[in-house]
Amino acid sequence: MQVPAPFTYERATSVDHAIELLTRLGPEARVVAGGHSLIPMMKLRLATPEALVDINDLAAELSYIRVDGDALRVGALTRHAELLASPLAAEHYPIFVDAERVIADPVVRNFGTVGGSLCQADPSEDLSAAFAAVRAEAVIRGPAGTRTVPVRELHTGPYETVLDPDELLIELRVPIRPGGGSAYEKVERRVGDYPVAAAGAALWLAGDGTVADVGIGLTAVGAAHFVAAEAEAALRGAPATEESFAQAGRVAAEHCQPVADQRGPVEYKRHLAQVLTVRALRRAAARARGEG
Length: 292
Fold this sequence. Notes:
Layout: E1 8-11, H1 15-25, E2 29-32, H2 38-43, E3 51-54, H3 59-62, E4 65-68, E5 71-75, H4 80-85, H5 87-92, H6 94-101, H7 106-111, H8 114-120, H9 126-133, E6 137-142, E7 145-150, E8 155-157, E9 160-161, E10 168-175, E11 180-188, E12 195-205, E13 211-219, H10 229-235, H11 242-255, H12 266-288
Parallel strand pairs: 1-3, 2-3
Antiparallel strand pairs: 4-5, 5-10, 6-7, 6-10, 8-9, 11-12, 12-13
Helix pairs in contact: 6-9, 10-11, 11-12
């Protein structure tokens, strides 16, 4: 039987209390919410935190999906199943519904949290690519107050983020903009698995049918910060056609850095990055036109 190393356990009663605990317990403390990523790593002793701060009692502060002005706001403790079922998410950014539909299984979606997924910073994590594609912002609170960081700058490397040890991700904010559509496409070995490769796209059309703006997120293929920035630049201002999408797909594949593993060789993953980018762009454009 695999068991974690010894650790101290504390249960937070508020966001301020959680930050106080993280400050007191030191840099080796970790936050636990759903626990579906952290606990297995602890059992394998890939992660050996000296203390856990449980934030599951903070739903009143950190679990919500709402529109506030021109932003969709998602609390960090929102469960995957709640985002999947949200009419607001489906209305403004169906990319989240697409992504949540292919994340793990109902057990994980019922307990796993949106904020936990982004903070885990797994290189194959679905929501990181989705939130990067829509240019979301992460709201972070610590002893010094609250700061906002673009999700595209949140991850500094595999399993690493810009959060300090005594800081807590409290919310994701996504700007709501007219004339857009979004979609997520994924290939997995079996239902609920981590992706072999996946792509998310958010696309806004100008009145003449060209691409006014675009965001493309990639996961599991070594894209820096989960973003296909070069493909975005190639598509921005171009006509929203199959030819333009194909070119963006080729650029995305060229600039990603997949690693061969049990899910497939490098060239297969690079091919998937190209194909899935095109599929996500095609479906996002159709939704932007009101066709799907």
